[in-house]
Amino acid sequence: MPAFKRTAVTLVAAGAVAGTTLATDAAASAAASYHCKTSSSPTFDDPSYNGPDSDNWSFDVKLCAKRSGGYIYTTATVYWDGPYSSGTNNQFAFNKARFHLQTKRSTRGTDPVVKYANYTGLENALENSSAMGNGSYKTGTAKTKTTGAGYLADGYIQLDWSGDGKGYKGPILFSASPTV
């Protein structure tokens, strides 16, 4: 085979391998998996209800973070076990409810928040639980440009119970995701 043809074939083959490598790296980056941690809350009693039916709520939250393509992505899923009675499980349980998702940079001491979002769709999801009082709610995804340090997902629930006149209660805290 003449040298020119051999060089052309070698360049085409090298380009194909390089293209495959770049495509594989991009696919691997896009398919990076989330690192998650699930933790639970204590049980919370609806202060406006004193009847004989169940009125307690308990929460589990799965906080997740992943690093991909120079960005950090954080998200959360809230699971709950709430009241099963139609008298307490309806659209009047809360004035407001939200999940406050935070993307934090992992540092020594207190981790600074670099991005946050409040997901108020939690109220509707809670008030439209299953007949057994269970349900889940997934937040959106926060995307943050990285600056080299480790990052994690953190967050909390805030509830404003209907009928108690006290606004949002203190935050219901959960364990942060692993650092990515």
Folded structure, characterized:
- The chain is an alpha+beta fold.
- Helices cover 19% and strands 42% of the residues.
- The protein has two helices and nine strands.
- Strands 1, 2, 3, 6 and 7 form a five-stranded antiparallel beta sheet that branches. A four-stranded antiparallel beta sheet has the order 5-4-8-9, with helices on one face.
- A hairpin with a 2-residue loop joins strand 2 and strand 3.
- The longest helix has 28 residues.
- It is elongated, with a radius of gyration of 24 Å.
- The protein starts with a helix and ends in a 7-residue tail after the last strand.
- The N terminus is likely disordered.
Which helices and strands, and how do they pair?
Layout: H1 3-30, E1 35-45, E2 56-68, E3 71-81, E4 94-105, E5 113-119, H2 121-127, E6 134-138, E7 142-145, E8 151-161, E9 172-173
Antiparallel strand pairs: 1-2, 2-3, 3-6, 3-7, 4-5, 4-8, 8-9
What tags apply to this protein structure?
single chain; 180 residues; alpha+beta; elongated; disordered N terminus
How would you sum up this structure in a few lines?
This protein has 180 residues and is an alpha+beta fold. The chain has helices spanning 3-30, 121-127, and strands at residues 35-45, 56-68, 71-81, 94-105, 113-119, 134-138, 142-145, 151-161, 172-173.
Number of helices: 2
Query: How is the quaternary structure best described?
Result: single chain
**Low-confidence region ranges:** 3-29
Report the end-to-end length measured between terminal Cα atoms.
51 Å
Described by strand count, sense and barrel closure, the largest sheet is: 5 strands, antiparallel
